[in-house]
Every structure is written in structure tokens, then in C-alpha cells.
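help with this record:
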Amino acid sequence: YPSEFLIQKITEDNQIPGHLRVSMSLQYVAGLKGNVLVEFFHGNIAEVENEELRHLMWSSVLFYKTPNVEVMACVLLSTKAIYFLLDDTFNHADEHQSADFWDRENSDCENNSFHLSCCLVLKLNDLQSVNVGLFDQYFRITGQSADHIVTCLTRDSYNTHAFMQQLMAVLSLLARTPSPEPIDKDFYSEFGSKNTGKMEDYELIHSSRVKFIYPNEEEIGDLAFLVAEKMDDFNRLQSLHILLYVLAFQVNPVEGSAQNTSPLQPKTLILTSSDLFLFDEDYISYPLPEFAKEPPKREKYQLADGRRIRDLDRVLMGYQTYPQALTFVFDDVQNQNLMQNLALNHFGD
């Protein structure tokens, strides 16, 4: 261990997305290749001597306790745990929220001349469920407590699929006690559970007893209903089809508005046959974890902007490599009835 093929695969995956900025510490990790990268994992990250590194992925992550802070992370999957090697700027991103998130009592980072970054460890034995987002744009990993709920915003179905495959393969190696025999339910409990009126998500229970939960068709229907609600046109709900759902970034048009404000603002882009929408989506709070005592403070989808396709004047495409930059230029006015009102006022009676 490890095989040449695995070393080559991990080395190829060890690339930071070019459109996201990271600190010097994570740039150092991204510069490691081949056996040096594996030795770095065993010498600085791994908690058990005999665990094997199986997969590496760069992704933006969100934590349940800090849902408004998206931070870049190097996600390392081994045969024992999932490690989230975090950008060291996360400590200063939201001090009042992250202060109780990290246990710094035994930390001597102030005395070190070189402190790499924080690392969150989620042991595979503590893993309970994995929720895959719409069209495999992101996935949420749920452990035993609020400290161990993490969403990886891959914004790429290929990366999500590759991680799911590796995670299922590693979980198959775990030796867990078998599930207890099912208890025969009486008539009333069986009858009541089948008539909740709500279709459950598609759920795959792995042999390790970890649940892999995928969205069902109703979620797209609920999203179409929400879009129709924002359009104030419920009559077109039957003919309304969501053509595209993608997690993207909106370039912040205000230059120098704040020093800590990133020029890239995470948005959910939804395209229908008649409109283009940008939503602020909560990727971490839904569906509610079992221990949640109250609903989240904000709705899952909040409309940020919406424009009619017929007002689209032109689309400008950048020439850089993936991810591609698109500029939508709309020829519209704030008040759609403005010209009509002007005509009436001008001509009087």
C-alpha cells in the first residue's frame, strides 16, 4: 500500500479550483504530489496508524453551527474517518459563531511559528446518514451531533458521484453489529405510517447501516410550485417546467463594498421556459436533523433576483477555462407598466 494507480488518482484530484482563493497553508497541501502527499497524510492528519487514504477532494463546505460561512476545505477519505482540512481564515470569518465551535483550550497555535489549519474529523463509525442534493450538486454528511453535520458544495455531479462511490466502498469494510430483527407491527401503527400524506425521500440503507437519502420527484414539484408563487402565476403551474438547477456564483457588482466580502456570492440558479431566477438556498438545515428542536431561522429558498427571458438582450461568454463566466444583459425596467402610464398621462383625457 498504496498502489501506483491510487497515488496517481489522488495526485490528479489534488487541485484547488482556480476560481476560489485559499490561504497559503492549503496551497502548500495542494502542492504535494505522489508519495509525499500520502506521507503528509500519515504524518500530520491520520489518527490511526493502519488507516489507508482512499480519496481526496477539494470542495466548499458549510457547517450546521455556522450556516452562513462557506469555507474551502480539502476533504480526505480514509478507511477510518473523513477529514476536513480547513482554510485557517475560517477562524476569523465569524468569530462569535465559531468561537464555541472549535475547542482551543489545548491549542498552542499562538506559540508555533507555522500553524497549518484546523481539521474536523468525522469517524466513519459515527456516520449516520448522507443526504444528496438535487442533481448531485451537493451532499450533506450527518454524524451524531450538530458539530458533525457538514455539507460539501461540490457544484459538480461528477465529484459528488465519485465521493459517494468511494464512501460506500470504505463503509463496506466496517465491521458493525447486524441490525436487530424487525418487530411485527400491529394494525394501527402499520395503517398510520402508510397514510402520512407525504412521500418519503428515496432511501438506500447501506450494509453498514448508514442511510443514503436521495431527493424524490416531489422535491422538483415543490420547487416548481415555489417558483410559480414567486411569479404570481399559479395558472401556469401545470405547464411550468424547471429546465436547469445549478449551484453557481454571482459576481458581486459592488467593488470595495467591504474588505471581507468575497466577489463571488453563492447562488442557486433556476431556469424555466419563461424566467431566470437566483435563489439564496439553505444547503445545511434541510431536511431537519432528528435532534433539531425548532425549525431553521430562514426558509430553504429565498428569492434574490428574477428576470423574464423575453427581456434578455444578450449573453456574454468569457473565454477562460471551466468554470465558465456568463454575463446576462437584460433590457427591462423596474415597472413593467411604466410606458402605458406615461402614455395615459401624456394624452390626458
Notes: Residues 93-99, 189-199, 337-346 have pLDDT under 50 and may be disordered.
